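Feature request disguised as a bug: please show the residue count (497) next to FAD-binding protein in the output. Example input:
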Amino acid sequence: MPTKTCINIVWFKRDLRLHDNGAIEFAIKEKKPFLFLYCFEPILLNDPHYNSRHWGFIKESLIDLNNELLKYNSKILIVQSDIIPTINGLLEKYKVQNIFSHQETGLLVTYNRDKSFNRFCKNNFISWKENINNGVQRGLNNRDNWNELMDVFYAQKPHVFSPRQGQLISIGAIENLEKNFKTIDLTTDAYSPFQKGGRTMGLKYLKSFFENRHANYMAHISKPELSRKSCSRISPYIAWGNLSMREVYQEAHNLALYSKHKKDLTAFMSRLRWQAHFIQKFEMEHTMEASSINKGFHKLKKGISKTYQNAWKAGMTGYPLIDACMRCLSHTGYLNFRMRALVVSFFTHNLWQPWQEATTHLSQLFLDFEPGIHFPQLQMQAGETGINMLRIYNPIKNSLEHDPDAQFIKKWVPELKNLEIPFAHQPFIMTKLEQEFYNFKLGKDYPAPIVNLESSRKNASDILWQLRKHPLVIEEGKRILKKHTIKRRSKNTQNTD
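Example output, currently without the count:
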């Protein structure tokens, strides 16, 4: 029997880039041939948190990676299979010595997969080496030195992709391997309204943001329409790993040294660290996927109304800004932070629905779905942490303040496009005579409000504030603060707790 060739494997997950990729850097240093691998895992393809828009973005990212790899006469082995049967298949051809990947702060399903995979590797005498991803640290008990660890991470020079000659498995060898696996069609809809995946596209967004768009970053950050251009829009490229947080942070830092818009860039850098903060929180409290981080809120019981939930999902609540946000998110996969907070606040406070009922619908819609951001933010906006300020956003106030000309509303709720500004924000204040004048009928052309803002706000506020006084909520709040409070803040960091 011929001796099997010894190789290493780089397992791509949410790190779809060649540059500043720790797993690849480890593989290069080993000086052995290595194979790039991506698995469209059925456990994730069938997971309710994901949507075809995510898989389309990933496919575009993989195509972009393969285009980069052409110059090295290599490509990624892309299969539709879970990781263990994939490696088992590769073991028939190769002796696999090391597998490199990043430490993933993901869903419970990926955590359980990783535990099984770790056992599999040990049983097959394979060394599985995971690198830190974007500075998030595994195994921390508190945040005492977290800022210092992040400072060190951000100061490190990004890795440059520079494999040794002949180190990458050739295209021909990979095409032979593909015959033994179930592959997947990488074709995507070129005309979809979503941002296109891949590092090449991510760098274009980053370049345009640093060249000019950042000038209005702070002024427009909360505006539902203007923020679509003035915010960086790189969140999906960070979430799926087309760009590394470190390279983005360093470029922003270098530009801020001489830019006349230093405040905008400083605020942007603060939010990069803010992103890492929430992922670190989820890494340290993984039960947040299903339950409130503050155990005192486990006693909070809310009735489930599918009527309310379906109206919210469809953008038919009778509150124009809420409906515009939900329709825009469904169509484009993007909303700015303020509007995301608004729609969650409305769902959990005004509609009085459990935040868990919103998790999968929103995760499917957010093109930049990142578990480490998703679950902590849902709980914070739902007011169930016991440590954050209770915020119940008023959709009318936010509408008038952030979309004064109703530009965003009329774009996404065209039923209101012929109404004058006051009525586009609040069609329910129109008299019957005014409705006749505009040839508009509330309840027919556009729904009447499904809940009363004031009474629903008061109900939520009264219950949540009373519950915050409960001894278990207070005790848990102290525990959370002790575990997650950042002791020192650098000038580019804000304590998001």
